[in-house]
Description:
Strand content: 15-25%
Largest sheet: 9 strands, mixed
CATH architecture of the largest domain: Alpha-Beta Barrel
Number of domains: 3
CATH class of the largest domain: Alpha Beta
Distance between the termini: 51 Å
Bound molecules: alpha-D-glucopyranose
Shape: globular
Helix content: 25-40%
Strand order of the largest sheet: 12-1-11-10-6-3-2-14-13
CATH topology of the largest domain: TIM Barrel
CATH superfamily of the largest domain: Glycosidases
Radius of gyration: 23 Å
Amino acid sequence: MPIIQPFRRILFAALLFAGCEQSTKQNETTTAGAADSANAAKWWKEAIIYQIYPRSFKDSDGDGVGDLKGIISKLDYIQSLGVTAVWLNPIYSSPNDDNGYDISDYRNIMKEFGTMEDFDVLLKGLHDRKIKLIMDLVVNHSSDEHEWFKQSRSSRTNQYRNYYHWWEAERGKPNYRYSLFDVNHDAWKYDSLTNSYYLHYFSRKQPDLNWENPALRKEVYGIMQFWANKGIDGFRLDAFGFAAKDTTFPAFPKGYEKNFMAYYSMVPGIHDYLKEMHREVFSKYDVMSVAEGAGNSFEDAHNLVDASRKELHMAYAFEGVDIARAEGYSIPHFKKVFSKWDSAFAKEGWISVFLANHDQARMVSRYGNDSEAYRDLSAKMLNTFILSMRGTPYLYNGDELAMTNAGFTSINDYRDMATLNEYKNQVNQKADIAAYLRKLQFECRDNGRTPFQWDASAQAGFSTGKPWINVNRNYTRINAATQEKDPNSVLNYFRKMVALRKANPVLTYGKYSLVDPEHTTVYAYTREWKGEKLLVLLNFSDKPATVKTGYALDKARVLIQNYPTSSGEQLRPYEAVIYKL
Length: 581
Ligand code: GLC
C-alpha cells in the first residue's frame, strides 16, 4: 500500500484560517483602504507566520526535548526575524504517540514542555514584542489516554461512550476504513472490554472524536474559549476536514483508500459544525483558526473560507507542497499550481502560501538545491517566493537558515510513529526496504524535525543533553550564530525580505500576474496595487536563464536581490530579484 503519498496529501493538503469578523481587540492595525470587501484589510492577511516545532526548537533543561522555556529564551531571536505571528505545534498534555497530536488534556501543558506559568510568560513575551500566537487544536481525535476515552471505553452505557465512534462486535465487522498511521492501515481497533471496535483514522492511540454528538462539540468550544480567554490569537484546526462522518459507516468501493480524501473529507455536517464554532468562538474573539483540509475542490475551499459564510478565513492548499519529487519536479507545473490557486481566490476568500511545515521534509532539499554551491542561493530564492506571493506566508523554523534534510540512513534514526509503522508494514509485505529508506531520505517528515541549529557547539546548541532525534551533521556549517555575523547569510536575507513585505502592502494585497508564463525555469510575476507595481524574477534552476519581461529593467529600482548585482533579464542559477517598476 503506497502510504506515504496519500498520507502527505491529507496532512499537507490544506490548511484553513478562520477568525471572527467582529474584532474585539482594540490594538489591531491593518493597512487601510484595501480594495473591496473580499480584499478588506485584516491582520491575519498581513501576518507573516513563523511556525515553531517546540520539541525541536530549544531545550532549556537538558532532557533532549525542546520546551517552552527554551522558546522564551529565544524570543528576541524570533522578534529579530520580523515575523508577526508564531504558530506553535501542540504543547498540551500528551503521551506523545504522535508528538503531541494525541492530546490527553486540552487544558494543560505537556510535562516535557513545561507548565501553564511558562505558557503565560511565553504568551506575554510574544505580545510584548507585538507577535501573535496561534495554537494547534487537535480535535478530530484525542489521545486514548484522554479521560473521555478512558470513560468511553469502560462501558457501553458510560456517558462519554458517544464521544467516540464505536461499533458493537455482534453487528459483525464494520466496513473497512483506511487508517493513515496504523501498521495494517485498518482504522477499526477491536477492544475486548466492551466487545466493540473503535475508529481511528490516525494511530490506534488517536481515536476519532464523534462530532455528530452535540455534547462533544460543546466541550471543544469550551476548550477553545479557555485558550481564547487566555488571549491567544488563533487556532490551527488539525485534520478538521475529517471531523464529520456518516456514522452508519457504509461500505466504500474497493480500493477507495487510494483516493480516501474524497470519502473522508468534507462529509455533510462539516459546514454546520463550522458555523456553530463560528457562533460559539470566532464571533466572540478576535482569533483566526487554521484547519487542515481545503476540501477536494476550489468550491469546497470557497465554501469553507468565504467571509459571508461565517466559517473559516483562509485556505491552506497543499497541492503546492505535493509537487516535489526526489528525481526533480516540473517548474511549469509548480507555476501552474500556485497561479491557479491565486486566481481561484483573487476575488473572494484568502489563501496561505508555504513550502514546508512539520509534516514535510526540508524546503531547500525538496524545492531548492541543498548542494554546497546552491543551498544558500536557492533558499533565499524560495523565501523570496513565499514572501512575495499573494496570501499569508508561513515560514517553518530552520528554513530561515536553509536547514536541510537529515541524511538519515538507518530506520533507527527515525522517530516518527507513522514512519516506523509504515516501515513494519513494508517489512511485512516483503517490500524493497532499501528503496523505502531512500524514499524516507527525501520525504520523511522527520527531516524537518531535527533540532534547530543555533550554533557550532555540541548538539548545535539545541540541548546540553542527548536530543530526542539526532542533530543534522551539517550544524557546524549551517547555524544561526554563524549566519548572524554574515550580512549576506540566508538568515539576514530572510530578515530583509520580511521587512520588504511589511513595508510594501502591494506584496500582501496586490494583484498577481504571471510574466513570461511559458518560461520553463523562471517564475516571474508582477504584483500591482494602488498604482504601484513590483516585478519578481525567480530562477528555479541551476542553469542561467533569460526571461522576457517586457519592462525596461535598467530604469527599474532593485528592492532586493540574492546576488550582489543584477543583470536585468539575464538570470544566474537560482537568482531572485524584485524590481519596483
Ligand atoms: C496533522 C498534523 C500531523 C499529525 C496528524 C494527526 O496532519 O499536521 O502532524 O500527525 O494531523 O494528528
